[in-house]
Amino acid sequence: MEPPRRWVRDTTFFLSGQTVSLFGSSLVQYAILWYLTLETQSGVVLTLATAFGFLPQAVMSVFGGVWADRHNRKFLLIGADAVIAVTTLVLAIMLWNGFDGLWLVYTTLAIRSLGAGVQTPAVGALLPQIVPVDKLMRVNGINMSIQSAMTLLAPALAAVLFALMGLQAVLIVDVVTAAIGISLVAVIPVARVVRSDEGASYLADLRAGLSYTRHHAVVLRVLAFFAVVFVLMAPPGYLTPLMVVRTFGEDVWRLTANEVAFGVGMLAGGALISAWGGFRDRMRMLVATSLAFGILSVCMGLSGDILGLPGSFAVFLGFMLLTGVGVSWFSTTATTLLQEQVDPEVQGRVFGLVGIVLAVAMPVGMLIFGPLADTISVEWILVLTGIITVLVTFAVAYRAPTAEAGMITE
User: Fold this and answer.
1) Is 216 in a helix, a strand, or coil?
2) What are the phi and psi torsion angles at 216 (to 5°)?
3) Are residues 212 and 170 in the same domain?
4) Alpha carbon of 11 to those of 8, 78, 157, 311, 344: distances in Å?
5) Which positions ≥6 away from 199 have C-beta within 8 Å?
6) What is the DSSP letter of 376?
7) Rounded to whole angstroms, what are the CA distances from 113 to 54, 162, 310, 359?
8) Are the C-beta atoms of 233 and 293 separated by less than 8 Å?
9) Quick one: which of 51, 90, 156, 395 is 20 to 30 A from 221 by CA?
10) Do 303 and 167 fall within a single domain?
11) What are phi and psi of 407, to 5 degrees?
12) Residues 212, 162 share a domain
């Protein structure tokens, strides 16, 4: 019989492996962005890099979700990490040998993005296999804190390595961290989920996953809510630096403070929800957090100078920190709710859809609100999206399904 605390050991190894791997990936993300910026100073190049970094993940998540339900999720994680590491190593070697075409960087970004499309549904579906259901919220909170810590530490270390040794050194660090991460995950015993529809074709699996999502009241509502909220979170996430420069000044320390406030908020939010455990009613938690998003967005807009009053940077930073807490709580609660509600044999496909939402929502939000920021002030955009978020939340809350609603019958 398995020792009752075995899950603690397995979870520790898993989160440690994911942390090390994520840290290396974060270093590469920043270093490649800076490399392209310094080498080309081209907005078109950065736009293409963003497309290669996000769109393949959205496409691959469709396949990755099905694979996560058909195969051992641990081996999928290891395989994706290994492919990403080898690709990164090849890029480093080619740069060392004088090859520096943009196509090399774009190809590397695309392959790394494809790997993320495999990893995202596998991670979301694997955790419930090793963590007891009543501990999922706390473990997801710890995981969110770890990810938030990476957003604070990675830029600083990436800057040091990039400045002293160049992009190649950062790429090699990522290869090493991937190897460590793979070693830690490899020792965790994870069985392939036994399904009731063994032998079904890939297309049948895909259709079954989409049908399951469409007919499950809670899952469908959470995914739709998740998508809309993250589209509306694009202005606080990406346009606030523009607001800082236009309203409070062009000092670099102000831009840094903006990012640090958000990162500290996410770190604190993950730690708090890990210790607290959140509301027992997960849907109620999502609604409450989304309402907070809307109110905080309006407050951030009003902290500028749109009312003819002098703006307060300190007040703005306070609201940005609280927004970071809210993002952490919303993401953790949504992930936990899906892990608790979705049948184990379909979790990969559902989290594949989550991966698509994550890869597409923010870019769509920027396509909508980015150009608008050249016409009206960011403050008014924040107020507008905040009000829309509140209205959408009330619409979701009205007759929202409870956690026990289950499947919709026809």
Assistant:
1) strand
2) -100, 115
3) no
4) 5, 16, 27, 45, 18
5) none
6) S
7) 6, 22, 43, 10
8) yes
9) 51
10) no
11) -80, 150
12) no
**Sequence-distant contacts of 252-259: CB under 8 A, at least 24 apart:** 254/313, 257/313, 257/317, 258/317, 258/320, 259/151, 259/155
Over the stretch 179-219, which tens digit does the pLDDT of each residue have?
A: 999 999 999 988 777 666 666 677 888 888 888 888 888 88
Low-confidence ranges of the chain (pLDDT < 50): 1-2, 406-410
Where residue 373 falls (left for φ over 0; alpha for ψ -120 to 50; beta otherwise) is alpha
- Please classify residue 16 by burial: count the beta carbons closer than 10 Å to its beta carbon, then call 0-12 exposed, 13-18 middle and 19+ buried: middle
Alpha-carbon span 142 to 136, nearest angstrom: 10
Count of domains observed in the chain? 2
CB count in 10 Å sphere of residue 100 = 12
Cα–Cα distance measured from residue 116 to residue 349, given in angstroms and rounded to the nearest whole number: 15
89, 174: one domain: yes
pLDDT tens for 142-185 read 888 888 887 778 777 887 888 888 888 889 999 999 999 999 99
**Residue (of 72, 140, 57, 27) closest to 352 by Cα position:** 57
Give yes or no: residues 383 and 243 share one domain: yes
Q: How far apart are CA 11 and CA 51, in angstroms?
A: 33
In a domain, 405, yes or no: no
Which has the closest alpha carbon to 340: 144, 196, 130, 134? Answer: 134
| Domain limits for position 298 | 202-399
pTM: 0.77
CA gyration radius, the chain: 21
Q: By the 8 A CB rule, do 81 and 178 touch? A: yes
Which among 17, 169, 181 has a CA at the least distance from the CA of 89? Answer: 169
